[in-house]
Amino acid sequence: MTVSPPVTEADGHDDAPEPIHPEDAGQWTAKLRATAVEAFPPARILPDRQPAYVASALYVFGVLTMAALSIVILTGLVLAVMGPTWWHVSSTGLFVNSLHLWSVEAFFFFMVIHLWGKFFMAAWRGRRRLTWVTGVVSFLVSVGAAFTGYLSQQNFDSQWISTQAKDGINSTGAGAVFNVLNFGQMLMWHIVLLPLVVVAIVGIHLLMVRRRGVVPPFAPEAAPAPAGDTPVGSEAPVAATTAGEAS
Amino acid sequence: MSGDGATVRIRPFKRDRDVEEWHGRYVPYDLAKEFVVAFLVVAVLVLLLAVVFSSPDEKPVTVKAWSTNLPVDFAQTAITELDGTSPTATYGPPYNPGSTSQSIGPLSLERIAGVHHPIDTAETDVLGPLRTLPDQPAVQQAVAEWDAASPATQAAWTAAYEKAVTNATYSDGQLHVPTGDYGPVGTMIGGLTAMARSGALDGALLSTGQFYGTDYTKPLLFIADGNYLSGLATSQHLGGDQWGMMNETGNYPGQAWLWLYTTFYQVRPFTTSANADFQVWSIMMFLSLLLLLVPFIPGLRSIPRWTRIYRVIWRRHYRELAASGSA
Amino acid sequence: MTAVVALVGALINLSGPGHFLSWHFIQISVANLVVICLMVVVFVAAILLPLPSRKHRHDR
Fold first, then answer.
1. Which of B122, B165, B180 is nearest to B147 (CA)?
2. Residues 11 to 50 of C: which have CB under 8 A from any B CB?
C-alpha cells in the first residue's frame, strides 16, 4: 500500500493516511480500510486525466444521466416535503411536478443514448462485465421506479395504469404481494425502496467505471489479436495524475 | 499492476471480451467541472420544458361520475358483481380462487402465489354498501329478502335481471328496467345506482371498516369492470391494443422505453391469447436477461465490432495511431 | 414565484386530444415519435461531434 509523504500542517497534525500497525492487521476495520484504499485510492476515485481516446461527445451521456437523476431526486424531495396531494391543488406544486416529470424524461433520454453508446463501444471488454451488468440493472430498476411514480399520481392516469398493469403483474404471481391498486404501498416503494436501490446500484456502477477505467478502443483491424499468454484486463492506472503520463 | 493481487489468468484473447489495456497518452479531464456543467445544462433544459409544457393531471374517475354519465352501464356491471360473473369475480388469484388463471403449459405462477387479496364482489360492491343505508327501509327489506333466499332462487333472479337490464333506461332520477321476475334485485340495483350517483358509494367502497385508507383495490376493480373508465382510456389511445402502455394523456410524451413490451400485445398470437400477460412478461424477462448477459454471449457481443460504428466514435484515435505508424 | 408560475403555466397546451400516426399495425403518438427521433438525432450527432472544448485541450 502506497503512503504519500506526510504533510505537516501548522498545528503539527500529520494528514498522511495512517499505515496499519502490524498488530492491528487482523482487525476487520483495518482489513476493510486496506481493501478499500487499495481498490479505490483517491486518485482513482477522482482522476484528473483520462486516456486520449476519450474524445467523442458520446462520452458525456453518463454524466448527463447522473445530472438528470440528481434533479429527479431533488424535485422528488420537494414533492415529499409538501405531500402527495399538493401538486393537484397548487400551481407551484404543479410546476414542481412538471420539473419532476421532465427530469424523468431527460433521465431516460440520456440513459438510453448512454446505453447505445456503451453497446457500440463494447464497453464490457477487459473485465468490465460487471460495469455493464450494473448499468443494465440500473435501467431495469429505473423503469420500475418510474412505474411506481406513475401509480402514485392519484389521477385518471394512475387509475388506468394500475387497473391495466395489475393483469401483467398478477400473471407472474407477484400481485399477491405487489398490489398496484394499493396507493399507499406503491407510494412507499416509489419514494423509499426503489430510490435507495437505484442510488445503490448507480453508486456501484460508478465505482466500477472508476476501478476499471474507460474501455480502450478496439485494436485497428489490420493488427492481429495478441497471441499466447494474455493477461485479461487490469485495474485503471492510478499513476496518471498531475505527475505525468501513465506507465 | 494487478490491483487485487490475483494471479493473471492465461486464456485466448477474444476481441469481443478482452482488451489490451491502455498504455498511451493521457490528457487533462476535469470530472467535477463536467458534472457541474451537466447539472446546470439539464436543470435549464428541465426548467424550460416545465415552463413551456407543464404536466398532465386528468381528474380521476369516481363511481359517482361513472353512474351519473353511464347509469345503465353501472347497473349492468353491478348485477355481474352480485351474481359473480364480472371480470373481478371470475379473475382467479390473487382476488378469488376462480378457475381462470394465466399459465404457460402446466406452470401457473399466479395459482402458486394464491389468493392474497380476497374479494367477494357481491358483498363488497353491492350488499355491503347497501347495508350502510339504514334509513332506506325498502332497500333493507330487499337485502333481507335476498339473504333469506336459496342460491338457486338468487341465481334465477340475477340471470333474469342481467338479461333485462341491457334494455334499461334512466330518467326522472330512476333506473327503468323492463318488468320481470327479479325478486328484490331490481330494488337493490336501483338503490345502489342512486347511492352511487349521490357519491356515497365511493366512500363506502374505500372505507370498508377502517377510517384511514390508502388501499384503493376495491373501488378500482369495480370501476374497471365497467365501460366508463375504459371508454375514456380508449379515447386517449391508452388501450392495450392501441400501444397504450407507451402513451400519456393528451399530447404529452409517454413511456417510450416500453416500446418492445407493448409491441408484443399488438401481434399474434398474443392479441387473442388468454395467457397473453404471462407470455409477454416471460418474453420480456428473457430479453432483459439477454441484455444483461450480452458480455457473456458470443455473437451478440460481437455486434459492436461487426457494425463498425466504433470506427466513427474513435476515429481521432485511429487517425493518431495511423499517423504515428504504431499498431 | 406563484404569480410567475400562474402566468407562465403552460405556454404550449399539451392537454388537448392527442395526435397519433398509424403505419400497418404500428400506432405511435406524435409526442413519442418526436422523442424517439430526437434520441436518434442526438445519438448520431454525439458520435460525430468531439467532446466540448476537446480541440482546445493541449496534452501534457
1. B122
2. 11-12, 14-20, 25-32, 34-36, 47-48, 50
Backbone angles phi and psi of B321, in degrees to 5: -60, -45
Domain count, chain B: 2
pLDDT of A89 above 80? yes
What distance in Å separates the CA atoms of residue A75 and residue B64, rounded to the nearest whole number? 34
pLDDT digits (tens, 9 = 90+) for B36-65: 999 999 999 999 999 999 999 999 999 999
A163 near B CB under 8 A? yes
Task: List pLDDT tens digits, range A179-217.
Answer: 999 999 999 999 999 999 999 999 999 999 999 999 999
DSSP code, position B10: B
Contact B249/B236 with Cβ under 8 angstroms? yes
> Is B134 a domain residue?
yes
pTM: 0.89
pLDDT 10s digits, A96-136: 999 999 999 999 999 999 999 999 999 999 999 999 999 99
* Claim to verify: residue B223 and residue B241 sit in the same structural domain: no
Q: Which residue has the higher pLDDT, B102 or B300?
A: B300
Looking at the structure, do residues B142 and B245 belong to the same domain, yes or no? no
Hey, which residues 27-46 in chain A have their CB within 8 Å of chain B? 38-39, 46
Distance from CA of B49 to the nearest CA of C (A): 9
Taken as a whole, chain C contains a residue count of 60
Q: How many helices (H) and strands (E) does chain B have?
A: 17, 3
| Cβ contact A58–C47 (<8 Å) | yes
Superfamily of chain region A122-215 = Cytochrome Bc1 Complex; Chain C (1.20.810.10)
A235 and B233 in contact by Cβ < 8 A? no
ipTM: 0.91
Residues 6+ apart with CB under 8 A from B144: none
